[in-house]
Design goal:
Blueprint: H1 3-36, H2 44-71, H3 77-89, H4 91-113
Length: about 120
């Protein structure tokens, strides 16, 4: 994979964290505005739209990672099963960790030898 693809995959892997931070901040500000009667506007449509986009991103990245996991020879059989369960059960936490271990570290190692990562 090229650097830009690895970077984009990394952004998508970290996106759920960005969404959670946005959701918490917007919820607290909306709650505070309702208590103080400052504003009657709400972000619910935006939050709802971003929620469904985030779900789609999680499913797409998780599917890509599982397909990569079973097509590569670099991960042994027992670790494949473990990673599959971890990606499915703890996906928001596991997606960035999986990206860092299997894509980002490989990219930094390949930069030293100036080779490109090839996904079989």
């Amino acid at each position: 994979m090229k650097k830009i693809s690895i970077g984009f995959l990394g952004f998508l892997s970290f996106w759920p964290f960005f969404y959670i931070v946005f959701f918490i901040i917007s919820s607290f500000t909306d709650f505070g505005n309702k208590i103080l009667n400052l504003s009657n506007t709400t972000l619910h449509p935006t939050i709802q739209t971003l929620f469904f986009i985030t779900l789609a991103i999680i499913i797409i990245v998780m599917t890509f990672d599982i397909i990569f996991l079973f097509r590569t020879d670099k991960v042994k059989g027992s670790k494949r099963a473990l990673w599959t369960v971890v990606l499915i059960q703890a996906n928001i936490i596991a997606l960035p960790i999986f990206w860092f271990i299997h894509f980002y570290k490989k990219q930094t190692k390949s930069n030293n030898s100036s080779k490109e990562i090839v996904i079989e």
